[in-house]
Design goal:
Blueprint lengths: L1 H22 L2 E2 L5 E3 L10 E7 L6 H14 L3 E5 L2 H9 L12 E4 L3 H15 L11 E2 L6 E7 L4 E3 L5 E6 L5 E3 L24 H5 L7 E10 L2 E8 L6 E8 L12 H15 L9 E7 L2 E7 L3 E3 H7 L6 H20 L2 E2 L8 E4 L4 E3 L6 E2 L25 H17 L11 H4 L5 H10 L9 H15 L2
Antiparallel strand pairs: 1-2, 2-4, 3-5, 3-7, 4-5, 6-7, 8-9, 9-10, 11-12, 12-13, 13-15, 14-15, 16-18, 17-20, 18-19
Length: 467
């Protein structure tokens, strides 16, 4: 199955490159973008620009429909140089949350042209399913065309804290910050030329929304496929803290069509399956759908992540401390596997340490049954192997992650996909058997063992170190 999805990715990628060669012949040095043509000297430096959103699956369709319209009117536009870059844009991680969905950027030469061409693009792409563009205004009640006022060419200014930020020019000719996360599509001094839409009143729609029962007050993460928020569960007489997880419809669509909403549904399935095993996974409080987005409400685990614990440490761990954590993490993985699941995102930020020192695993969006291995990659760079085993299960990926965590705890570094520096090269006095075990878990081939056996070996080493 992985091969079939890989072939699909290759086929779509080749088609995208052909479209780029045809419609986007101009490349920019050290840039992910390709342009339809160079900028003319008499064209504006800023104005109302349009964005056409798409996923990796329909990006080629969007470009094939939009490009002829824009080229016929000689309007400059740009798009990413590869579907890989489109994937990165839609995660909201590599280039910023505000860039999600900005597949094709169009630079009209006037406000009137912007409105006119927006209508044409809307008419030809209305049936294309795509992620919403954060902070942009949608053109029309549906579709994938968005607009916002901003700079057409790179313009930057220094901020008071010494950083550089995007800029536009105000009516006085002064350079000011080009705020891309504002709640309106343009600065206060520019009139919005686009037609007013008769959309439902969000306040009235929200009165009956299940979201009213959970008051989110802090965003823990925000990315293309959704957000994770700390919230108050108001369904009880005595409100309690909870975690509200949002899976966005069409967010970070993968090669097989799964999106953020599907990932959150998968997490609910996994958590409910693991709860009887008493692994310490978060309890599920509720789940519901709002505007096609999937929401999951779970227990809030008081404490800190292993990542936070490591970040604030000033001294590296002793070998005994590393072994202690290793035994407990290996035990979690072993019990997850015994329950029939592969975690696939085992890493320090997904391991909570409670106030009593108990380790509890979180984040199971990418988990899959051991007897039905997910055909597509998942996990976090640094904790996922270069090899992607197409075997009877994905359990070996969790063992690699365990090896990466042990390597990190012992050396303070991640192993990386290239030949990692041997543990002895970074921690010469580390126990030889522990170093050998870590290198075994990080080997180029999947470890031929089980998590329970790894736990037993770590426990034995811990007993020796305690003597």
């Amino acid at each position: 199955m992985e091969t079939s999805y890989g072939s699909k990715a290759e086929e779509l990628s080749r088609a995208w490159q052909e479209l780029c060669s045809k419609y986007l012949p101009v490349s920019a040095v050290d840039s992910i973008w390709r342009f339809s043509r160079g900028a003319a000297t008499d064209e504006p430096l800023q104005g109302w620009k349009l964005h056409v959103s798409a996923t990796v699956l329909n990006a080629g369709v969007a470009l094939e429909r939009v490009a002829p319209i824009l080229r016929a009117r000689n309007i400059q536009f740009k798009a990413p140089s590869s579907l890989s870059e489109i994937n990165k844009i839609n995660t909201g991680i590599y280039y910023g949350y505000s860039q999600i969905g900005k597949l094709i950027t169009v630079y009209p030469r006037s406000a009137d042209e912007a409105v006119n061409i927006a209508q044409q693009l809307y008419d030809t792409t209305r049936d294309i399913s795509a992620p919403a563009v954060p902070f942009d205004e949608r053109f029309g009640p549906d579709g994938c065309v968005y607009y916002r006022y901003g700079a057409f060419r790179p313009m930057e200014i220094d901020t008071p804290d010494g950083k550089r930020t995007h800029a536009i020019m105000n009516p006085s000719g002064e350079m000011v910050a080009d705020v891309r996360e504002a709640d309106r599509p343009g600065p206060v001094w520019v009139a919005n030329p686009f037609p007013i839409q008769n959309l439902p009143n969000p306040a009235s729609v929200g009165e009956t929304s299940p979201l009213k029962r959970y008051a989110a007050f802090r965003a823990l993460t925000q990315r293309g496929r959704g957000g994770v928020y700390q919230a108050l569960d108001l369904t009880r007489r005595n409100p309690r803290f909870c975690i509200l997880k949002e899976g966005r419809s069409l967010g970070e669509v993968s090669w097989d069509g799964r999106d953020g909403a599907g990932r959150v549904r998968n997490e609910e399935t996994v958590l409910r399956a693991l709860l009887p095993a008493h692994l310490g996974v978060p309890a599920v409080y509720a789940s519901f759908v709002v505007e096609d987005n999937q929401y999951l409400v779970t227990e809030f685990i008081a404490g800190e992540s292993l990542q936070a614990f490591l970040t604030k440490r000033r001294r590296r761990m002793s070998a005994a401390q590393v072994l202690n954590f290793g035994v407990r993490i290996a035990s979690l993985i072993s019990r997850i596997h015994a329950a029939g699941w592969a975690w696939r995102d085992c890493k320090p930020s997904n391991i909570m340490i409670t106030r009593k020192g108990v380790l509890r695993p979180i984040d199971f969006e990418g988990a899959c049954p051991l007897d039905k291995p997910d055909p597509l990659p998942w996990g976090t760079e640094g904790f996922t192997p270069k090899w992607r085993p197409v075997v009877s299960s994905r359990a070996s990926e969790d063992l690699y992650a365990l090896g990466a965590i042990l390597y990190l705890l012992l050396t303070g570094k991640l192993p990386g996909h290239k030949t990692p520096i041997p543990v002895a090269g970074l921690r010469p006095k580390a126990p030889r058997q522990l170093s050998d075990l870590i290198e075994e878990l990080l080997a180029a081939d999947p470890p031929q063992t089980e998590a329970g056996m790894i736990r037993a070996r770590l426990s034995s080493l811990l007993s020796i170190s305690a003597r």
